[in-house]
Amino acid sequence: MPRTALPRLFFARNTASIPVKGLGNPTKVPLDEFVAANCPSLFKEYESPWWLFNGHLQTLYCVLGDFSKIDKVEYDRTFLRTTDGGTIGLDFTPSPSERILPNDTPIVVVLHGLTGGSHESYVRSILAPACSPVEDGGLGYRAVVVNFRGCAGVPLTTPQLYSAGTTCDLVVALMHISKLYPSAPLLGVAFSLGANVLVRYLAEEGSRSRLTSACIMACPWNLVANSSRLESNFFRRNIYSRGMAQNLTTVVQRHLDTLARFPDSPLSRAFPRFLESGEFTLANYDDMVACVAGGPYPPFPFETVLHYYAWASTHEVLADVTIPLLALNADDDPMVQVLPIDKGVDNLSPSVVFALTTGGGHLGWFEKGSYWGHSKRWVSKPVIEWLRATGKDMVISPSQARKLIEVDGYLMEEGRDTLGCQVVEGGEHIIGVEGEEGLFAGL
């Protein structure tokens, strides 16, 4: 039977006050009142379709469903070369050839899931309404999807990958976007692994964050506990863990030519050992590959996967977030069973609202009325409401981010000489999901 219930909302004991625009001076509103006034969908029941009545079905439909004909979004891609030689891909929408927007238009900055990209249906389900013109019922915003190294057609130019805790590529992406649009508020939206990266970024940057608000979905939070739950359950281990490991294996195999140029690198040595092990699970991949090649040295390499998971987890740094953050999880997510609010709200930042739905799976949240080939995601409603409120109604405080400077052709931040980027050739217009064969979508 379909599960129907109101989302459960959790706030810190003392919530932050949100400055909102008014006829005169800005008015400060407690976060819980701000949410109640601007996110009505969080106060209405979410009902799943009768044929997607549990988290496994929701998640598997997210992987196997056909979403190619809905929520179409086109992008213009820019490649950024980082100071360590790596490459990340930024996909901008709408294209200037389609629509010219004012320079102060709010920008949604998106981080995808484990092996995804701008093509993913869960990404497009948010960006289609966020970036549609106001006259067509959309927000009229601009968006940029940050595609991780090696994902979604982004070339791997060094033997360093990405991980659930590596934030340096997000830092340089936000530097570039801020340089292009210095007067635009930047609103973060992130999914699954990308959500974990975003929370770490917000906790690390604090008041220097270039994002003015954020919304995350299906964050894995406590990686140690949730990995243990995933790997110790026969079904989850053999379906989800192996499926994610297969995706990661496919991504790395697409870049074997690059690895051949770095035969002595940690990644070039670790990946063949992982293949030879025959143990294609997410935990084993993380133990043998992500631990050594998922980010810069230091802190990589990690001694064991548990050390890596403990470092990358976000449940304990959530209290350090200083901007308004909406976090959404489903209570039947088969990959995320342990949540920060399981033991109360003491580790919630005053700026965080945590919403837990009854049903929805992992990045599913398909709602009643969905059918094969035309599925509606309930989660797009509260996300769009949140983006509208924090992008248009919230008063943005003056940025405390570090000053941008240029050093030897690289865009950098004053006082942080280890991170920088420059635009390189190779960008293109992106339509559809070509080139993503061999990957399970939605993971």
TrEMBL record:
One of its GO terms (molecular function) is acetylesterase activity. Residues 106-337 form the AB hydrolase-1 domain. Gene3D superfamilies: alpha/beta hydrolase (3.40.50.1820). It holds the Pfam family Abhydrolase_1. GO terms for biological process: medium-chain fatty acid biosynthetic process; medium-chain fatty acid catabolic process. It comes from the Eukaryota. The active site is at residues 192, 333, 362. Belongs to the AB hydrolase superfamily. AB hydrolase 4 family. This is AB hydrolase-1 domain-containing protein. The lineage of its organism: Eukaryota, Fungi, Dikarya, Basidiomycota, Agaricomycotina.
